[in-house]
Amino acid sequence: MLQTADVISELKKLIIKSEKPYDLDAVDRAITAACKAHEGQRRSSGEAYVCHPLKVACILVELGMDSETIEAAILHDVVEDTPMELADVQKHFGAEVATLVDGVTKIEKIPFSSREEQQAENVRKMLLAMSQDIRVIIIKLADRLHNMRTSDAWPPQKRRDKAKETMDIYAPLAHRLGIRAVKEELEDISLRILDPVAYKEIEDALALREGERNAFLMSIQERIRERLAEFDLKPFVSGRIKSITGIYRKMYMQGRSFEEIYDVYAVRVIVDTVNDCYNVLGIIHDMFRPIPNRFKDYISTPKPNLYQSLHTTVIGTAGIPFEVQIRTWEMHETAEYGVAAHWKYKEGLANSQVSGENTFEWVRRLLESQEDTDAEEFVGSLKVDLFSDQVFVFTPQGEVKGLPAGSTPIDFAYSIHSAVGNHMTGAKINGRIVPFETKLSNGDIVEILTSKSAKGPSRDWMKLCKSNEARNKIRQWFKKERRADNIIHGRSAFESELKRAGFSMTMISSEENLPRLLKKLQYSTLEDLYAAIGYGGMTALKAVNRIRNEILQINKERKEQNTVQELVSADDQTQTMHIRTSLPPDPPPAKKRYSKNGIIVDGLDNCLVKFAKCCTPVPGDPVVGFITRGYGVSVHRQDCPNASPEKQAAEKGRWVPVSWSTGDLDAYQTTLELSAKDRSNLFLDVAATLSAAKIRVDSITAKGTPDGFAIVTVLISVRNREELDMVTKKLSSIRDVLGVRRAKG
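Predicted structure:
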């Protein structure tokens, strides 16, 4: 277990070794303040909590970050997890450090409707801070890296959730910022958690002939050195094996075998000048046979994350392919450290210079284009923008534009300016007029034709464009310019979705219900809601889903008001519940009575009955009742974990016998989970099967897993156990479905 003194010693040794002009007094004060603030706090592993921010600071020293960044890293959790206020940080360490700490601090004190919404808003805040000072995200990446390194102490589900978030957000951000080492380590740790079988398979494949692979790389490096020396070139030559995650993507996502991956081996050649890069390329192609279409010139056309290099793949000894990367020393430092190289190798570079570079303009454009979207949708858009491969095209003036692969002239127009997109009437690619849906290719010269009399974008454009930036700018135009049309369009969509969900517009718009529902949706009026749906700021489905529970709660409250009031009290001595019912004088002995839910409760009449959501029983299931405090009897399946024999024994006085009535029964909700091999149209096949069986579907969701499988969850309504068994049998017969089970607990 780490000791605080050891981590402090490690941090100071790294600072001394770096030979950078750190403010050692300020760093010492930050260490003292953090140790005092986190005193008594422990991590899941049992070690002192302050070891975490100190380790984060160590990572940032290795990246070469400045003194203020190191201080902020040491203090990055004090505002969130200790009584220390942001004002205290500013008072003792300055406004710059306080701003960095605030940018990293999560949004914890604002109420959110869901955990996902809170996480999404945290990401938005982080990126907003990043657009103002790029060091915020570098601290956050180091924070996430150390957390993932020590994730073994977390519960399994938390590990998987954090690993998925890391793959979705943090690793792509590290890639966008060019910090290769951080990106690859985050990916490899996350992959080991999410798909341990595949990770081990690749790890074993790499280890199988490790000696042979190392010998191959060494021989190639030596041959290149000797040949380049003949031309008076003295480069630095090194070799590496592709990261496990990189191999995983090509094996499992592109369907290749291990032997079909051409860049498992990579040789890096670092020279002094750009001219030397191209000279070395010619020599390499003379030494080895190049593979067609595997050459990429990132020197003349750098990647958005500043990366520059020449890439070529050639056939080496015994027909083994390998990749060669050729770059200058300056390009190499940028390739390894990305934006952090500004602090590591360029002393005195002002923060404003870095944060103002066009390289990070994509962050600001993304934030600006999504001002009116909710946090969850924002993060969804971010994932698309981060993950997309890029296509590089040119303006008629020769300016390079990087767009997501699959982009159209619409995306190009809006990447130039909103006004260009809004007034677009046509487009030319390489001098020829083309339809708006034409996909752009690398090297295309794109010209946008505009007119002041243009009526603006069409709603169909949102289906044709690829980038979220273009899609959101079109939405903003409709929001500002077509409010009346948006209201009409949005109202129609909302009412249609509402009807499909089984609710009436009368229920929504009543004076009693409307304020409550609008508050839930965070709109002032129905017209504002309709307008948002009309321009695409919110989907009708999401709006109905958000108010569904509120409507059900309203119905429940009204039902309770019209039923016999149940007076339930708890006896502090015996912990049993006594339900008093309104009975006539001289009541007969207790009888089995029917509830309105089709349930008979022994000994109780007119008792409020609800079905437990944890196990969703249906007629035919063996059931048992639990007397709740204030809400009548909750009915569970007997095999429900919440109705286990142990729990029944612990509270004997609150468990009562119940049974199903024999009369006409309504439909009852229950949840089924399908496990299947992931494939196209699986979701549609499940929905079609349920529709053909005339089963009401209340919700259906599907999610894929990294190992190529999918989990489909359906909430359906059935009349009895026989109908449920019929549905289960039909779902089990769908191609590639491996199993169907009732949800438990």
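Summary: Confidence is low (pLDDT under 50) at residues 107-114, 345-359, 369-373, 564-594.
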